[in-house]
Structure formats: structure tokens, C-alpha cells
Design a protein that fits this description.
Shape: globular
CATH topology of the largest domain: Rossmann fold
Helix content: 25-40%
Oligomer: single chain
CATH superfamily of the largest domain: Cobalamin-binding domain
Distance between the termini: 60 Å
Bound molecules: cobalamin, iron/sulfur cluster
CATH architecture of the largest domain: 3-Layer(aba) Sandwich
CATH class of the largest domain: Alpha Beta
Number of domains: 3
Largest sheet: 7 strands, mixed
Structural class: alpha/beta
């Protein structure tokens, strides 16, 4: 084994608006480790390289990435001994399968290895594709080179932790090897192999956390989260134990990015950056001292790990926009259904504190959990829209991500819609029917909430927004209008209040 090609495949997704491209840190770390060991590594980030391409619609989904013919050319050109395909997102499954098939068509002897969050959650299913030779479960910086050795030797596969492989046509699932204890032993991600300038160049409109379009790398300062939210599958790759990098190493990496790429923004993509409050405060203090001249962004922050002092410190280093994951405006839903350790009254205190400091707040909410009622959903939306705390709000649909507890609940209770497919595993399509709501109910509520929100923000364009509903959801048009009207009458005219802490 000498020539290793690592691929982040295309995605088939529901939304055309969201074309944000972040660096695939997983294969960037693996690439770096392999280079250190002397392998010749090439990268193909289909997602980032296909950014400028017009999107194709296939079966109602948007195909994001480069055309398969280009993938073919790149594999042919490099003639890899081994191809590693990252399947972090379930929306990549279709392309991952196609890419594996393509590799075997071109070079039948080339080993195909698949890893990433989806693969770690559904390893047996991924192995159903005969063109996939191995699945690696979990973090793979240490195990990937181990596997390459075993492939060279032709024996010893039993000793590779987390490996799923075939023996005499049966499937073997090796026990996991645990999580990487010393994250500081890993080299920096292999930035030099990736199309740096493409990352985060295209932005989701109206999201507050990352501002005007500009290349923005991401960094990982820790891995893992102790939370038990039922819709999350992070623990499948990163575990529930918080593991942190030494801050000196983190700042070394930031210095490298500043010096080499002259970055002005940096995104921290930790599973839960604020898990260790003391460390996060120390990060802020030291970040200030370094005077890098860059802005720090986060996707969302975990409110259940925050306090006033931490808000102050983040504000002091320039985080004037903060996104917080509330998920629900109903404590019982949070505690008993979502299983998020967030106390709403404390959350409100912190949000009020941040608001009064002048921080621009985004609240993210998730609706449509199994067990949630329509009334619960209304109360969440009421909090999102009428608490006066959020400058912007994002409402997502609870989605059974493979590997999450919610996926198992939905499977056990047969809640999936008939046309469920992995291309629907984004957070914008309803995927389940429960005793309390149908997928159509969720679509109507979400569309009505959006229309209501838009009209309130800009009443002059009411006709345009109504036309928008007709364009996007013709069969639901009248239901959406009725629901929107009810929202106006109930909350804006009659001033009826839903309860929140
Ligand atoms: C940053 C991030 C993003 C970035 C993109 C990152 C990227 N390009 O990879 C953005 C913001 C764009 C994003 C978007 C989405 N995300 Co996201 N995201 C993450 C997050 C927080 C961190 C990923 C990361 O960089 N981790 C750090 C690296 C080091 O770890 P890693 O990628 O897992 O890689 C390790 C292993 O997986 C493995 N590995 C990875 N690839 C390979 C390949 C091979 C060959 C091998 C052997 C091993 C291997 O080894 C790596 C090193 O240890 C994860 C949470 C998580 N911890 O997984 C969610 C996560 C991946 N996202 C998730 C989801 C659902 C989404 C969205 C669908 C949400 C949405 N809003 O629509 C979208 C989908 C993309 C889209 N439509 O554009 C889910 C995926 C679950 C699933 N089954 O699909 C996750 C797991 C979070 C969760 N809630 O459970 N996301
Ligand atoms: S707090 Fe975030 S990362 Fe942690 S379990 Fe919940 S959703 Fe997952």
C-alpha cells in the first residue's frame, strides 16, 4: 500500500439554499497521520470542489458536488492502492455507494474503506455494498494506518479495533478500541492538501454566526459531549466523554492558520466547546493575549454549560453574535423527550443577561419529536417569536439520525414515513408520523411559522410571501394560510400568551 486517496463524496440533499462547505476535518486528520507515516496521500473533496457547479435535481433532491465523471477521472489519474471514503452524513450514502462501485470498476484490487459518523452508526448496512471492503467504526487516525499494514500482510485483521470486515463471506465486527486519549499526539489537519479558499465561501443567508462570505477554516479544540440528546449521534464517533486538547497546541494551530492563510475568521466546530467552563474561560483569556486579530465563530453554544462570566468572556473576545440551542420551549419536552440537561428558567436568565449586553442572539429550536404534541410545538414557536430575546431564530425538524436514540425509537414504533430514505436525513424534512402529528402537520406548521415571521418583519411584502407559499407548497397552500391567519389572530390580535419560564 502506497497510494491512498481520501474522498469526501457528493451529497444528495433536500435544500438548495444551504450550500455551506466546511473543511472535512476527519479526513484531514487521517491524511496528516498517513503522510507522517510516509504514504502518498491525495484528497478529493467532491463537495468543496463542486461548489461552483449548478445543482442537479435528482428525484426531488439537490445533488451537491462534482459530477461523477470527474470523480472517475481523478481516481483513474491517481491509480490508488486504497480509497478511503468518508461517510459522515447520511445524505452521502448514495454517493458513497456509487463512488465505491466506481473504484472497483476501475481498479478491482484497490481496497475500499469507509468511515465517518453514518458508517460508525450503521456499519453492517454499509458493508452490504460488496464494493466496500472495510468499515472503520469511530475515530480512525490510529486505526487507519494499522489496517493498511494488515492489508499489506494479508493477515491480522482481528487486531484492528473497530474494524468491520469479511471473513469466509461472513461479517466480523471487531470490538472498539476506545477513544483517542491523547489528542495532542495527533498532527495538525493536512491543510495543504485541501482547497482552502473554497471553505465556507458560500453561506446560508440570514444566519448570524458567520457574517459576510469569506474563506473560514474550522478548528477542533476538543471532542465528545456528555449530553444525551435523543436526536444526536455524535457519541457514535466521539463518545460521551469530553476530551480536550492542550490549549497551547490549539493556539499553535491558530497561529499557523493566521500566518499561512491570513485568516480573519475561525469557526470552532467542537461537539461541545463549553463543556469545561474553566477551560473555555481560560481559552478566552489566552486568546485575548495572543492578539491574533481574528474573529471566532461557533455553530451553536450549549446553554446548559454557560454562565454569566463565560458570556462576558466570549463577548470580550469579540463574539457579539451567539447562537444557542434551546430545542424546545417546554421544560417537560426537554427533560423527558429530548433528554437535554437544560433548565429553561436558568436559560432565560442567561439569555436576558446576554441580550442586555447587546449580544445578537439566535435561538435554534427543533420541532416534531416523538411524544411531543402540537400544543408543545406551538409553545416552542411562541417562545422563539414572542419572548423578545432572539434577534433571529432557526426552526428545524426533529430527524431520526442513524445512531441516535430517536432513530431507534422511530424504528421500534414504526414511525418512519413510507418514502423514508437517507437523502431525507437533513433537518428540514419531516420523516415520522406519531399519534400527535403527521408529516403534513409539521410541514404546515413550519411553513406557517415562516410566513407569519416574514410578514411580521416586513408587512409590505405580504403578497410576495403568500406567493412564496404557493410556489413552495402548492398542495398545502390553503392549510398554510389558515394556520398563518390563526397565528396572527391568536398572538398578535388577541394577544394570547403561551407559557414559557
Ligand atoms: C462541523 C459539522 C458540520 C459542518 C460540515 C463538516 C464537514 N464537512 O465534515 C456543517 C456545518 C456544514 C454541517 C452540516 C450538517 N450537519 Co453536521 N456536524 C459537524 C460536526 C459538529 C463536527 C464534524 C467534524 O468535523 N468532526 C471532527 C472530525 C475529526 O471527526 P469526524 O468528521 O467524525 O471524523 C472522524 C471519524 O468519523 C472517522 N472518519 C471520518 N471520515 C472517515 C473516512 C474514512 C475512510 C475512515 C476510515 C474514517 C473516517 O475518523 C475521523 C477522525 O477521527 C458533527 C458532529 C460530530 N462530532 O460528528 C456534525 C454531524 C456530522 N452533522 C450532522 C448533521 C445531521 C448535519 C446536517 C444534516 C444538519 C443540517 N443543518 O442540515 C448538515 C449536513 C450537511 C449539509 N446538508 O450541508 C450529524 C450527522 C448525522 C448523520 N447521520 O447524518 C452529526 C454527526 C451531528 C449530529 N447531530 O449527530 N455539519
Ligand atoms: S449537547 Fe449537542 S453534542 Fe451534546 S448530546 Fe446534545 S446535541 Fe449532541
Amino acid at each position: 500500500m502506497e497510494r491512498i486517496l481520501l474522498i469526501q463524496p457528493n451529497m444528495k440533499v433536500a435544500t438548495s439554499g444551504q450550500r455551506i462547505v466546511y473543511p472535512p476535518l476527519g479526513i484531514m486528520y487521517i491524511a496528516s497521520v498517513l503522510e507522517q507515516k510516509g504514504y502518498k496521500v491525495r484528497i478529493l473533496d467532491c463537495h468543496a470542489e463542486g461548489l461552483d457547479r449548478d445543482v442537479d435535481m435528482i428525484d426531488g433532491y439537490v445533488d451537491v458536488g462534482i459530477p461523477m465523471d470527474d470523480v472517475r477521472k481523478r481516481i483513474q489519474e491517481f491509480r490508488p492502492d486504497c480509497v478511503g471514503i468518508s461517510c459522515n452524513f447520511s445524505v452521502m450514502v448514495a454517493s458513497m455507494n456509487e463512488t465505491a462501485k466506481l473504484v472497483k470498476e476501475l481498479f478491482p484490487k484497490t481496497a475500499v474503506i469507509v468511515g465517518g459518523n453514518h458508517a460508525s452508526s450503521m456499519p453492517e448496512e454499509v458493508m452490504e455494498n460488496p464494493c466496500v471492503d472495510y468499515v472503520m467504526v469511530g475515530e480512525s487516525e490510529l486505526t487507519f494506518p494499522m489496517l493498511l499494514n494488515k492489508i499489506d500482510q494479508g493477515i491480522g485483521f482481528e487486531s484492528v479495533p473497530g474494524l468491520v470486515w469479511r471473513k469466509d463471506s461472513g461479517l466480523i465486527k471487531n470490538p472498539p478500541g476506545g477513544y483517542i486519549k491523547d489528542l495532542d499526539s495527533l498532527p495538525m489537519p493536512a491543510w495543504h492538501l485541501f482547497p482552502y479558499e473554497k471553505y465556507s465561501r458560500t453561506y446560508k443567508p440570514h444566519t448570524v454566526t458567520w457574517g459576510k462570505p469569506e474563506a473560514m477554516p474550522s478548528i477542533l479544540t476538543s471532542r465528545g459531549c456528555a449530553g444525551t440528546c435523543i436526536f444526536c449521534s455524535v457519541h457514535k464517533t466521539m463518545g460521551r466523554k469530553f476530551r480536550a486538547r492542550n490549549l497551547d497546541k490549539v493556539f499553535e494551530e491558530i497561529r499557523f492558520l493566521v500566518d499561512k492563510y491570513h485568516i480573519s475568521k475561525l469557526m470552532i466546530v467542537d461537539d461541545n466547546f463549553t463543556h469545561d467552563r474553566k477551560r473555555t474561560k481560560q481559552f478566552c483569556d489566552e486568546f485575548k493575549k495572543y492578539n491574533f486579530g481574528i474573529e471566532i465563530y461557533f455553530q451553536v453554544l450549549a446553554l446548559w454549560c454557560m454562565d454569566e462570566e463565560l458570556i462576558d468572556k466570549l463577548y470580550d473576545i469579540g463574539c457579539t453574535h451567539m447562537g444557542f440551542a434551546l430545542e424546545s420551549g417546554v421544560q417537560e419536552v426537554l427533560t423527558n423527550i429530548v433528554k437535554k440537561p437544560l433548565k429553561l428558567d436558568r436559560a432565560m436568565e442567561l439569555l436576558r443577561y446576554a441580550k442586555q449586553k447587546g449580544i445578537h442572539l439566535t435561538g435554534t429550536f427543533v420541532i416534531g419529536f416523538p411524544g411531543e404534541t402540537k400544543k408543545d410545538i406551538q409553545r416552542s414557536l411562541y417562545m422563539a417569536n414572542y419572548s423578545g430575546l432572539f434577534d433571529s431564530r432557526e426552526i428545524y425538524i426533529a430527524t431520526p439520525l442513524p445512531g441516535s436514540e430517536m432513530f431507534d425509537i422511530c424504528k421500534k414504533n414504526n414511525l418512519f414515513v413510507d418514502n423514508f430514505s437517507y437523502s431525507r436525513v437533513e433537518v428540514v424534512k419531516p420523516n415520522i408520523t406519531t399519534k400527535d402529528f403527521t408529516p403534513e402537520d409539521i410541514e404546515v406548521i413550519l411553513e406557517a411559522d415562516r410566513t407569519h415571521h416574514l410578514i411580521k418583519a416586513n408587512p409590505k411584502h405580504i403578497l410576495r410571501y403568500i406567493k412564496g407559499v404557493w410556489k413552495r407548497k402548492p398542495p398545502l397552500f390553503f392549510k398554510v394560510l389558515w394556520e398563518t391567519l390563526k397565528m396572527f389572530v391568536k398572538y398578535d390580535f388577541l394577544k394570547i400568551k403561551e407559557i414559557y419560564p
